[in-house]
Amino acid sequence: MIKEIAFTCYAVSSLSKARKFYEEILELKATNVWADGEMGFVEYDIGQGTFALGAGAENFKPSKEGASVAFEVDDFEKTIKKLKENSVPFVLEAHETPVCRMALITDPDGNKLMIHKRK
User: Fold this and answer.
1) Quick check: 40 and 57 in contact, CB under 8 A?
2) Distance (Å, rounded) from C-alpha 64 to C-alpha 24?
3) Which of 28, 41, 65, 109 has its CA 20 to 30 A from that of 20?
4) Which architecture does CATH list for 8-118?
5) Would you say the pTM of this structure is higher than 0.70?
C-alpha cells in the first residue's frame, strides 16, 4: 500500500545546467549529491518531500511531456519576478484561483514546474 511520495525525480540532459537552474534561480539547496561529471543524482529536501534530478543513466531521459511538480513558495510575486528576470519560459502565466495563485514554467529541458501559493 502506498503511504506517501518518496521523491519526485526529473531526468535532465545536463546535471550542471539543471543544478544552476534549480539552485541559483529557484534557490533550492542540495541535500545529497552523487555525481561523476554530467552523470549523477541530486536530491533537494523540500518540507517533508524530496525533489531529485537524475542524469546520464539509461533510464533518465528528459521528457517535454512528462510529469509536473508543484513548488509551494513563500512570496509568489517575488518568485515570479525573479523567474521573468531570468527569462524562464512560462507555459501558463501567473493567475489566481479561488484557493491559490499559480504559474507553470519549464526548466532547461522542458520539464514543467508549477509555482504555487496557497491562500
Assistant:
1) no
2) 22
3) 65
4) Roll (3.10)
5) yes
Cell of 115: 509555482
Split at pLDDT 50, 70, 90, the class of 25 is very high
**What are residue 44's phi and psi, to 5 degrees?**
-130, 110
| Domain residue spans of the chain | 8-118
Q: Strand, helix or coil at 54?
A: strand
Residue appearing with cell numbers 518540507: 47
CB atoms within 10 A of CB 16: 13
- Mean pLDDT is lowest, of 53-62, 66-75, 83-92, for 53-62
In contact, 47 and 4? CB cutoff 8 Å: no
Residue 59 is predicted with a pLDDT of 62
Q: Which amino acid is at 3?
A: K
Mean pLDDT value of segment 32-44: 89
